[in-house]
Each structure stands twice: as C-alpha cells, then as structure tokens.
Structure to design on (335 residues):
C-alpha cells in the first residue's frame, strides 16, 4: 500500500509542474539577440546618392573618423578614370574647403589629398571663394592648421596661380595675410596704423622650419604675381577698334574712379603686373625688405629661404617705375 501511495504522489507532482518552464540554472546567461527592422534590397545604392551622402558627412559630421572616411571615399571617386563627381568641382570646394581649419589632423591631411586630385582647370572659377578659407587657416592660432593651410596655398598656386593673383582681394589681402603670419609690419589702408612687428632674432628648430616654409610659399606667390606677361598678338582691326570704336561697357571709365565710392584697395582686382607692382611698392615693399634683412641675419634654413625671396623680389621689381599719375584718392585727401 505504501508503494502505491508513493507512485500516486509522484504522478500528482508531475501533473502540477506540467506546462511550467524548467527552472533556470544559477549560472544562466540570457543571449537573446534582438533584430531591428531592416529593409532588404537586391539593388546597390546609387553612385550619385553615395557621393552626395559622403559629401554631406564630410562637411557636417561631428565624428572626426566619419569626416575622414567620407573624404577618403570622395578622394577615391575623384581619382577614378574617368573621375566620378556628379556635383562638380565648385560644389565640392564650397563644401569641403572650410575643413582646412578642422581641429582633427587626419581630416585636414585627407582634405589635402582630395584637393590634389581635383582638375585644375575647374578650380580657377572658384579661386576667390577658396582663398578666403586658406587665408583664415594661415592665420589660425594652431601651428599645425596654419601649416596645412600653407600646403593648400601651394596647391592653389600650382593649379590656378594666375587666377589667384588677379581675383578680387587675391593680391593685396593674401599679401597682408603672409605678412601678418610672419609678423612683418605692414601699413594698412587706414593711415597711422601698422601691425606689430616680429622682433624675435632666434627661432626654435621647428619654428625655423615653419618660417622657411612660409617664406618659400610667399616667394612662389610673388613670383606668380610679378612674372613677365606675354602680350597677346593683336591685329590691325583690333588696333583701329581701340582707337575709334565707342566703348561698349556701361561704365567705360570706371577705372578712373571719378564718380564712384571710395576705392577699396584690399578688395580690388589687379589684372596686370604693373598694377600689382604699384600696390606692392606702395603697401608692402618696405615691410618685406625689412623682414628679409632680419631673417637673413638668423641664418640657417630661414636665412636661405630669405635669400631666395630676395632674388624673386629683385627679378619681379627690376622693371618697376613709380607711377607719376595722381591717385584719385589723393585728390580726395587734398580736398
């Protein structure tokens, strides 16, 4: 009878636990994987959309790595034969050139690689916009950012040097930036004001290398602006047109600045060598010569760079003659 009762109790126990989960072990670990809702497609993303997406990431992402990776993707697309660029060089530069002042060094280095694969003939129309950000980068408090902006300036001189020195503000404002970076005192267009001069006579090795690089890029810039121009061949008909045909321009004598607002020397275009020589002599020559003399005394790599700059300057200004024409601004001052 005892055996029968025991079996009956075991059956009742089994009936009570039927349908219940088995007790979990003490060392149990929940490894459940939750899958998010995903849409699967057999078609790859459109190349145009990928390019635009990465262009947006490069210019606006808060992640340094994401900006760098997006720039690397764009560089790869622009390096293909033929290059893939559905938005055009102007749009790429407008979005990306502000990154020259990016706080992340890998981002700036990748940007420099991207700039070098852009077609030079398509950079020329947007030089004015591009150089504004390069000048801002050159005057940045961070030496690394300033150096990378200087490297970008070298690139711009390679692909669009003529457009750089002739675009509005490209000549005077860029020269002002160079002199400010090196601490060479330059008189501004407002009378009585000068920038602080750099009175250091010795530089640390790293600073000396940076200064030599700045001087070398300045020499290239002056060489681009002061080199001899090759006159275009003219025909007899063009000569007669210049003498007798009425000007077609709405304001043919605008260059005289007789009836317009006060001239802004900083933002003006200087389309020829003579015009650039005149404003350089007026605003920058003394400061640059003093800076060269001071730098030559330091010797070393900076002294050699200063000698190279001196040679470029001597060649570029050897045919310069001071204009005897009275500037209209001088007339206003006398009045």
């Amino acid at each position: 009878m005892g055996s029968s009762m025991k079996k009956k109790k075991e059956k009742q126990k089994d009936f009570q636990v039927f349908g219940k989960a088995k007790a979990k072990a003490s060392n149990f670990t929940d490894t459940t994987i939750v899958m998010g809702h995903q849409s699967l497609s057999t078609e790859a993303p459109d190349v145009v959309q990928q390019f635009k997406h990465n262009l947006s990431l490069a210019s606006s992402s808060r992640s340094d790595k994401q900006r760098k990776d997006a720039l690397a993707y764009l560089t790869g697309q622009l390096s293909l034969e033929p290059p893939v660029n559905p938005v055009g060089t102007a749009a790429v530069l407008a979005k990306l050139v502000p990154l020259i002042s990016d706080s992340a060094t890998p981002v700036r280095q990748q940007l420099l690689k991207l700039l070098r694969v852009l077609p030079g003939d398509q950079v020329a129309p947007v030089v004015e916009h591009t150089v504004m950000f390069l000048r801002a980068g050159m005057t940045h408090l961070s030496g690394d950012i300033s150096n990378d902006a200087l490297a970008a300036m070298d690139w711009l001189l390679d692909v669009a040097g003529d457009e750089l020195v002739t675009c509005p503000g490209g000549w005077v404002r860029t020269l002002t930036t160079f002199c400010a970076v090196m601490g060479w005192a330059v008189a501004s267009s407002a009378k009585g004001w000068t920038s602080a001069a750099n009175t250091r006579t010795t530089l640390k090795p790293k600073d000396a290398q940076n200064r030599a690089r700045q001087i070398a890029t300045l020499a290239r810039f002056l060489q681009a602006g002061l080199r001899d121009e090759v006159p275009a061949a003219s025909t007899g008909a063009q000569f007669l047109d210049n003498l007798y045909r009425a000007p077609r321009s709405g304001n043919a004598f605008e260059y005289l600045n007789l009836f317009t607002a006060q001239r802004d020397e900083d933002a003006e275009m200087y389309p020829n060598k003579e015009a650039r020589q005149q404003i350089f002599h007026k605003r920058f020559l003394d400061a640059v010569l003093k800076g060269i003399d001071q730098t030559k005394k330091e010797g070393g790599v900076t002294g050699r760079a200063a000698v190279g700059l001196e040679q470029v300057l001597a060649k570029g200004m050897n045919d310069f003659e001071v204009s005897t024409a009275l500037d209209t601004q001088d007339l206003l001052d006398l009045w």
Residues 168-188+204-228+260-325 form one domain. Residues 143-166 form the longest helix (24 residues). Residues 189-200 have pLDDT under 50 and may be disordered. The chain has 15 helices and no strands.
